[in-house]
Amino acid sequence: MLEKKLFLYFQEAQKHIDKINLSKEVLKKHYPFTVDTLEELTEIENDKLDVLAFRFAKLQDLLGEKIFRNILNLMGYNTQKPFIEILGELEREGLIDIKKWIAIRNARNAISHEYPYQEDKIIEAINFIIENSSYLINVTYKLQRLFNEIVSKRS
After folding, report:
1. Is the pTM of the predicted complex or chain greater than 0.85?
2. Other Cβ atoms within 10 Å of 2 Cβ, number
């Protein structure tokens, strides 16, 4: 059952990754974003920016809420502990960097809230997400490779 859940979670993650990559491709001519470039976006580009932020947040949530504990559980770890300890186990296994994860979480939170008259915060978060989405994607693929190795050894 655990293997089936993780398999489905990784399928969901791939959908988020595909949308992130497509959005980044459409938006790359505007990167790095400034107040001016943000104002110059077409309606389609604005939609892609929304998709980027949404999918980035969804991927990060999926990893943090479903994949991390389950992959550690599959590896034989006790996962009945606070999330920060889960992050510590993942870092010790070389799967994530806690400081990077927390920075990504903070950017994700910043982009998901509206900050009227604080365009600089929004722009900073957008640029951070674009710069760090590859890290989130790489963590996903690293976890997926680990999952595939564990499952193939059990077969």
Report:
1. yes
2. 10
Residues 6 or more apart in contact with residue 23 via CB below 8 angstroms: 48, 49, 51, 52, 55
Q: What does the alpha-carbon distance between residue 95 and residue 138 come to, in Å, rounded to a whole number?
A: 10
DSSP class of residue 75?
T
Burial of residue 127 (CB within 10 Å: 0-12, 13-18, 19+) is middle
Identify the architecture of domain 2-154 in CATH.
Up-down Bundle (1.20)
Question: Could you read off the pLDDT of 83-118 as tens digits, one per residue?
Answer: 999 999 999 999 999 999 999 998 888 877 665 667
Between helix 43-62 and helix 98-112 the angle, nearest 10°, is 140
Contact 69, 48 (CB under 8 A): no
Q: Return the structure tokens found at 151.
A: 């499952």
Q: CB within 8 A of 25, min separation 6: which ones?
A: none
